[in-house]
Design brief:
alpha+beta; Retrotrans_Pao; single chain; four-stranded antiparallel β-sheet
């Protein structure tokens, strides 16, 4: 099968492809720059500056025709594709709003109350500035002036959200320090901050598989409380033996309810 839609940030290589009849990707850029707009794993790539950025014109058009309902809020959030977490600080605030409307028990097409509608409109207004966010694709620490390269991970949390970011820290011979974004992840904090488990409860123990059908079934043999009085760890008996597990990996089975 012949490959097509080749793309590169090298002018020399692009010229060589054209001479040899390769099918080269060509499309106009929606934000008006005089460069070709490529899509790499769903993310816009400016091959002239070699940066990733967000093309939000289609989303802005969609929002202009929307309503203030739970359904529309989820549709907006679902149209933002950010696998690397480039705009995680923006996306996580939409996720907080989604959690809020779920907690309120709103119907799909019920108008959201002002306490949610106001911040949602603010998030929609901020969308027009997302195209200003750009992340270099190339990690520039291959030159001879580099004396140290470190991969850092920083995490933080609040009562509402938690997240982490991974980045390179590069030191050069002139003692200048630069950082390069790698990826980030963010999550909304669960509404229920602890699990009510007790001895003899039947539980599922989270395993490496994503399918709960493959997780081990067990019973609580002993519980360990934290300083706040909530259970933080358990000794669980499964067919494989006794294991001490943090409560985050324990899921009470429906038989207990």
């Amino acid at each position: 099968m012949p490959l097509h839609k080749w793309a590169t940030n090298s002018a020399e290589l692009r010229e060589l492809w054209e001479k040899n009849g390769f099918s080269i990707e060509t499309s106009s850029n929606s934000i008006g720059q005089n460069v070709i707009n490529y899509k790499v794993h769903g993310i816009s790539w400016n091959n002239d500056r070699d940066i990733f950025y967000f093309d939000i014109e289609t989303l802005l058009s969609f929002i202009s025709k929307g309503t203030d309902t739970k359904r529309f809020l989820l549709q907006v959030a679902g149209r933002i594709f950010d696998p690397l977490g480039l705009i995680a600080p923006y996306v996580i605030r939409l996720k907080v709003l989604i959690q809020n409307v779920w907690e309120m028990g709103l119907l799909w097409d019920q108008e959201m109350p002002q306490i949610v509608k106001k911040p949602f409109k603010e998030r929609c207004h901020e969308l027009k500035d997302l195209h200003l966010v750009s992340i270099p694709r190339f990690y520039d620490f291959t030159d001879s002036n580099v004396v140290d390269v470190q991969l850092h991970s920083f995490s933080d949390s609040s009562k509402k959200v938690y997240g982490t970011v991974i980045y390179f820290r590069v030191v050069r011979t002139d003692l200048t320090i630069s950082t390069s974004f790698v990826t980030s992840k963010s999550r909304v904090a669960p509404l229920k901050t602890h699990k009510d488990v007790k001895v003899d409860d039947v539980v599922l123990v989270e395993g490496s598989s994503k399918s709960k059908l493959l997780w081990d079934l067990g019973t609580i043999q002993e519980t360990f409380q934290g300083r706040d009085g909530h259970v933080r760890a358990c000794v669980v008996k499964t067919k494989k033996g006794l294991f001490r597990k943090p409560v985050q990996l324990i899921y009470p089975f429906e038989l207990n309810e």
